[in-house]
Amino acid sequence: MTTANLFIPLAAEQKSAEVTDWAARIGWVAGLLLFVVLVYWLMRQGWKWRGSLQSDVPDLPTAPETPGEARLALTGRYHGSTTAGQWLDRIVAHGLGTRSRVELTLTDAGLDVVRPGATDFFVPAAQLREARLDKGIAGKVLAEGGLLIVTWQHGDRLIDSGFRSDRSAEQAEWVAAINHVVMNSMNHSTTTEGAS
Questions:
Q1: Which residues of 88-106 are buried (b: 16+ CB within 10 A; e: fewer)?
Q2: Measured between alpha carbons, how far is 140 from 76 in angstroms, rounded to an integer?
Q3: 80, exposed or middle or buried, with CB in 10 Å at 0-12, 13-18, 19+?
């Protein structure tokens, strides 16, 4: 048997590459897209359902026409609001669950929250309860002290709202300033009650 005869069976066994089955590939891609759309739709329905469960949340207050002189101002990010003390219980009613850019202004009248592309709101000084630095709020976790958390009363709910300044070093100053406004507001209300 010659060497040429040895290679003939090997050459005969080689096959050409299979042709791509485009119908099957298109079917898989279409199925994957339908799955993604279904998951997105379910998430949206869950968001709406949570909003309907929170229908007892009153409308958000708006800033007074003359809020007074600004004590502090910052730009940064609004990361959402939760039930106070329950950092995973997100509040979505009235757009409080919508993340956005934010411009905060603290005055003697309260905290003005301006959110381009989302609902603005105002927290009167009498409704402010405290401010602190924390590491997380629903959907956002940072290093310890990375978030400015403002606790405020809205109707019969205590709400924690999370903010992150573009210049995080100034957040400690915000905690002190908000807590100062809270103390002044409490002293003013105590004095007013004592006088009546």
A1: eebbbbbbbbeebebebbb
A2: 14
A3: buried
> How far is the CA of 130 from the CAs of 28, 40, 122, 177, in angstroms?
53, 36, 15, 10
Tokens 């502090």 label which residue? 72
Q: What pLDDT does residue 93 have?
A: 84
Contacts of 50 (CB under 8 A, 6+ apart): 90, 92, 97
Strands 157-165 and 147-154: antiparallel
Closest C-alpha among 66, 47, 83, 67 to residue 155: 83
Identify the band that residue 14 occupies on the pLDDT scale cut at 50, 70 and 90.
Answer: low
Residue 145 contacts residue 130 (beta carbons within 8 Å): no
Q: Distance (Å, rounded) from C-alpha 102 to C-alpha 171?
A: 14
- pTM for this structure? 0.71
Q: Is the pLDDT of residue 121 over 60?
A: yes
Query: What's the CA gap between 6 and 57, in Å, rounded?
Result: 85
